[in-house]
């Protein structure tokens, strides 16, 4: 969404001992996916600067089918409800607090 939120999200997760790779946009994510690095959770703003999370979901799911995805946005997009029918995908509406964010992360990761 923006650099401040990216840094804050990274800090929250790292404080809880999660290893974080922070990427600023969809193009960086697509490039990173091509490297075939293993990972467990993607936290995506619904509206990234260069593309929507909706456009990225098929790429994420084809490269890392077992991965969990947390979609965040101040305004949920109509497609989010359908995407969240998949138990590996959850939506969290902004604004949210750290505790609520971490609860959803822990739930997704089991």
Query: What's the number of extended β-strand segments?
Result: 3
> What helical percentage do the residues reach?
40-55%
- Encode the helix/strand succession as letters: HHEHEHEH
Structural class: alpha/beta
Q: What do these coordinates show?
A:
With 110 residues, the chain is of the alpha/beta class. The chain is built from 5 helices and 3 strands, in the order ααβαβαβα. It has helices at 3-15, 26-34, 53-63, 79-83, 98-109, and strands at residues 41-45, 68-73, 89-93. A 3-stranded parallel sheet has the order 1-2-3. The longest helix is centred in the N-terminal third of the chain and has 13 residues, at 3-15. The mean pLDDT is 92.
Features:
110 residues, alpha/beta, three-stranded parallel sheet, 5 helices, 45% helix, globular
Give a short summary of the structure:
By secondary structure, the protein is α/β, with parallel strands linked by helices.
List the helices and strands and how they pair.
Layout: H1 3-15, H2 26-34, E1 41-45, H3 53-63, E2 68-73, H4 79-83, E3 89-93, H5 98-109
Parallel strand pairs: 1-2, 2-3
Helix pairs in contact: 2-3
């Amino acid at each position: 969404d923006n650099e401040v939120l990216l840094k804050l999200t990274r800090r929250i997760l790292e404080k809880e001992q999660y290893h974080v790779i922070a990427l600023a946009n969809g193009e960086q994510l697509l490039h990173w996916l091509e490297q075939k690095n293993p990972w467990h959770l993607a936290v995506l703003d619904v509206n990234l600067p260069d593309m929507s999370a909706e456009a990225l979901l098929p790429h994420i799911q084809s490269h890392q089918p077992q991965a969990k995805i947390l979609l965040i946005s101040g305004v949920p997009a109509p497609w989010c409800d359908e995407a969240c029918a998949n138990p590996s995908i959850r939506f969290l509406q902004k604004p949210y607090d750290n505790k609520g964010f971490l609860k959803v992360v822990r739930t997704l990761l089991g």
